[in-house]
Amino acid sequence: MSEPIRFYSTNHQTPAVTLAEALLQGQAPDRGLFMPETVPAISSATLAAWADKTYPDLAHAVLLPFAAGVFDDQTLAALCTDAYDYDVPLEPVTQRRYLMRLDRGPTASFKDFAARLMARWMSVLNRDVTGDLLILTATSGDTGSAVAHAYHGVERVRVVVLFPVAEVSDRQRKQMTTIGGNVTTLGIDGKFDDCQAMVKRAFSDPALAALRLTSANSINIGRLLPQAVYYVYAYAKLAEATRGEPLLVSVPSGNFGDMMGAVLARRMGLPIQRLIIATNANDEVPVFLRTGVYQKIVPSRVCISNAMNVGHPSNLARLVDVYGGHMDETGHLHKSPDLERMRGDLYAVSISDDETRATIKAAYETHGTILEPHGAVGWAGLARYVREHPEHAATLAVSVETAHPAKFPEEIRATLGIEPEVPPSLAGLEECPESYETYSAEYEPFRDMLLREYT
Ligand SMILES: *Cc1c(COP(=O)(O)O)cnc(C)c1O
Questions:
Q1: How many CA atoms lie less than 13 Å away from 107 in the CB half-sphere?
Q2: Separation of CA 196 and ligand 1 centre (Å)
Q3: Using N-to-C axis directions, what is the helix angle for 353-367 and 409-416, rounded to 10°?
Q4: Contact between 408 and 373 (Cβ < 8 Å)
Q5: How many angstroms does the Cα of residue 259 sit away from the middle of ligand 1?
Q6: Confidence of residue 3 (pLDDT cuts 50, 70, 90)
Q7: Measured between alpha carbons, how far is 134 from 182 in angstroms, rounded to an integer?
Q8: How far is the CA of 268 from the centre of ligand 1 (A)?
Q9: What are the distances in angstroms from CA 187 to CA 164, 203, 446?
Q10: Which residues are 348's β-sheet partners?
Q11: Which residues contact 201 (CB under 8 A, 6 or more apart)?
Q12: Is the pTM of this model over 0.90?
């Protein structure tokens, strides 16, 4: 049995902790983000041997070293089997380009992958602790429903979701506000960044010290580890086609949690030729990579890929850390990362709404593939990279589709003139009664409500 992996804070002001502590704390006490001290290597022989593994089996194999000392082998296997009871289709769009659809979970976005396993991990850990756990989550649209669904009915866990009331689609909102039970939803009269700031402030507020607060946002390492798995899965499934050649991977990105999953997978040894980070008009990271100067976008720009309307991605601090720099939680750069190495590994590109719509249209007309706005940003980013690097025109590529088109029927209808088929997970929402309260983006009324309702 190997030594359990410990998790350090990107602010380096607190000692490293176990996975259990990192999961339950969410954010490190010094407001940094937890990162694994070591990343176990997966050899190419192992990758090839994993070609036939089912998704739950592969998740178990990839995550086992991270869980060592906290979850035993059998527990982890059972949790993975229980969490991953849906398909993970790798759809060939052209001979060399695949779309990995991560939208088959119960709330029809990739957020289910992490939320479902993290909820199961926490519920096991929570057995040994007294008192209720209060999970605060800010959502740009899809995290809220994935987290609410994953924790719904879990004993001694309560969930509060904050969402920007004017920036989520009707369907996204109904997916959160119709759950009820131990889940409370607050529509915030502000941006996702406001919701995120309110949640982060609550974590470091001494007035709330009596509450056992944690985060289900991608500041929690429990969100990132499961998100490394599907990149390994894609590679293992395509191992025969790649014949050991590296893969291009394109990830539509907002808060950069999904992309950090791919960065972790690459550190495990997954051969990724280039990791394409595709953002919408919130282009603070593409600009940072190009210029070395980081400037948040306040307020964030409103785009049709609404779950990516993030003007200051939390996980950027982790990316900077991986490349030897230090960025604090406010976005202040204390030490520059190795930009040359970042530019070699990553390709960051911003895609406009016009290009997003044109991509949805072209993918449908040319290949019969239905993309929704987020997946279209990733697909357009891949096309842009290959256009600039024609030597990679035949390199095998995987682009991630992060949500089901039926989550964005208005956009699909307007762009393609068709009605996306509604998966069972989204059916029947229209009839469910909604319940949510609206709050301003000010911190104090929110804090007072937490004190009133949860102490
Ligand atoms: C959350 C989300 C994204 C962005 O993922 P990050 O991890 O925040 O970068 C992309 N697409 C959809 C549909 C999402 O819900």
A1: 30
A2: 14
A3: 70
A4: yes
A5: 9
A6: confident
A7: 10
A8: 23
A9: 6, 19, 11
A10: 277
A11: 443
A12: yes
Copy the structure tokens of residue 299.
């307020």
The residue nearest atom 1 of ligand 1, judged by CA position, is 307
In this predicted model, what pLDDT tens digit does every residue of 122-152 receive, in sequence order? 999 988 888 899 999 999 889 999 999 999 9
| CB-facing half-sphere around the CA of 62: CA atoms within 13 A | 32
27 Cα–ligand 1 center, Å: 20
pLDDT of residue 425 exceeding 90, the answer is no
Helices and strands, number each (H, E), in the chain: 18, 15
- The secondary structure element, H or E, covering residue 439 is strand 437-440
State the total domains in the chain. 1
Mean pLDDT of 406-434: 92
Q: How many CB atoms lie within 10 A of CB 340?
A: 8
Residue to probe by mutation, ligand 1, list 137, 142, 275, most atoms within 8 Å of CB: 142
In a domain, 265, yes or no: yes
Atom of ligand 1 nearest to the CA of 256: 9
First to last CA, the chain: 41
Counting from 1 in the atom list of ligand 1, the atom nearest the Cα of 372 is: 13
For residue 32, being part of any structural domain is answered with: no
pLDDT in tens, 31-63: 999 999 999 999 989 998 999 999 999 999 999
Q: Is 15 among the domain residues?
A: no
pLDDT, the chain, mean: 94
Residue with CA at minimum distance from ligand 1 atom 14: 307
Ligand 1 mean position to 455 CA, how many Å?
32
Q: How far is CA 416 from CA 121, 154, 171, 175, in A?
A: 41, 40, 19, 24
Q: Has residue 424 got a pLDDT over 90?
A: no
Q: Classify residue 177: in a domain, yes or no.
A: no
**What Å distances lie between residue 380 and 47, 351, 358, CA to CA?**
28, 7, 9
Q: How far is the CA of 206 from the centre of ligand 1 (A)?
A: 31
**pLDDT on residue 242:** 74
Q: Which domain holds residue 280?
A: 89-108+222-416
pLDDT at 105: 96
Ligand 1 pocket list (CB less than 6 A) = 109, 111, 140-142, 218, 252-259, 307-308, 374, 402-403
Report the CATH number at residue 346: 3.40.50.1100
Please tell me the distance between residue 453's alpha carbon and the centre of ligand 1 in angstroms: 30
pLDDT tens by residue, 73-122 = 999 999 999 999 999 999 999 999 999 999 999 999 999 999 999 999 99
